[in-house]
């Protein structure tokens, strides 16, 4: 068996390092994604390299269910309410009551929670994208 030369090892290592980087620089491609979701959160788009930075998912909450407190960080978020009613709880502010069909916008650096206040299922799609400075 032949022994690998330093040049061969270096070129192989370079190839293995650059291969993942080249796949990340390819622009996102159009796609269709089936909605096969049970109860809870169902991620649809999970950011780079699938998108240019946007994430999205489908949420289904039972009555009195909640997604839990979380923050948008450096992102902005839109909730597209498809079915049911609920409340967007924003830390330090009055809650925002909503019902389908409606859109709820949550700005960057906002701690919030979403609860189902209705008697039926609450279903919505969330879209999270990096916020740009104005």
Instruction: List the total number of helices.
Output: 1
CATH class of the domain at 40-130: Mainly Beta
Tell me about the largest β-sheet. 5 strands, antiparallel
Distance between the termini: 62 Å
Mean pLDDT: 78
What share of the residues does DSSP label as strand, in percent? 35-45%
Please state the CA-atom Rg, rounded to the nearest Å.
Answer: 21 Å
Q: Give unreliable regions as ranges.
A: 6-23
How many beta strands in the DSSP annotation? 9
CATH architecture of the domain at 40-130: Sandwich
SSE sequence, one letter per element: HEEEEEEEEE
Order of neighbouring strands in the sheet with most strands: 1-2-9-4-7
CATH evolutionary superfamily of the domain at 40-130: Jelly Rolls
Structural class: mainly beta
The coarse overall form would be: globular
CATH-defined fold name of the domain at 40-130? Jelly Rolls
Helical fraction: 10-25%
Question: What is the gist of this entry?
Answer:
The protein has one helix at residues 6-24, and strands at 40-46, 55-61, 70-71, 75-83, 85-90, 96-99, 102-106, 111-116, 122-130. It has 134 residues and is mainly beta. Strands 1-2-9-4-7 form a five-stranded antiparallel beta sheet, with no helix packed on it.
Notes on the protein architecture:
The chain is mainly β. It has a domain at 40-130: Sandwich (Jelly Rolls). The chain is 14% helix and 41% strand. The chain has one helix spanning 6-24, and strands spanning 40-46, 55-61, 70-71, 75-83, 85-90, 96-99, 102-106, 111-116, 122-130. The strands form two sheets. It has a five-stranded antiparallel β-sheet, with no helix packed on it. A four-stranded antiparallel β-sheet has the order 3-8-5-6, with no helix packed on it. The N and C termini lie far apart (62 Å). Residues 6-23 have low confidence and may be disordered.
